[in-house]
Design a protein that fits this description.
147 residues, Cytochrome Bc1 Complex, Chain D, domain 2, 2 domains, two-stranded antiparallel sheet
Length: 147
């Protein structure tokens, strides 16, 4: 290997390491810096002020459309496009279907999640997104479920 090739290889290695350092630094902050985006729930039956415990929109075509849009605006950044996680956050394709999955999903989307040190790893959406939007997102996620 010539000296020129060694220098090129070393330079590429330094650039790659610097890229990983920058990527790693931004990855650690990605979850806490998410600004929730409004979701248009026009065309869905209103659910009222009482929080539902089971998904009222299961199989609802309009909820699936709203949920797809809401997911892509608010969730895909961390959970991946089409609910396929790239490793930053849980892969929601494997979230249980039915009541157990509904309960976990709503607890997490409403309250968010923090590390033990208090760092936000998922923002809380309660108070920003109405439950119609949350249940629509759940409908979309469940439509892509895998065993």
């Amino acid at each position: 290997m010539t000296l020129r090739n060694v220098l090129i290889a070393l330079s590429a290695g330094v650039m790659l390491a610097a890229g990983y350092a920058v990527l790693g630094a931004s990855e650690g902050q990605a979850h806490g810096d998410v600004t929730p985006q409004a979701v248009d729930v026009t065309g869905l039956d209103p659910l009222g002020p009482e929080w539902r415990t089971d998904n009222p929109y299961g199989g609802n075509k309009r909820a699936l459309e709203v949920g797809s849009s809401g997911y892509n605006q608010n969730c895909a950044r961390c959970h991946g496009l089409q609910v396929i996680s790239g490793g930053i956050a849980p892969d929601l394709r494997y979230l249980e279907k039915g009541k157990i999955g509904d309960e976990w999903f709503m607890t997490r989307i409403r309250g968010g999640a923090k590390k033990q040190d208090g760092t936000t790893i998922m923002p809380a959406f309660e108070g920003f997104l109405p439950q119609e939007a949350m249940w629509s997102i759940r409908t979309y996620v469940e439509s892509l479920h895998q065993d």
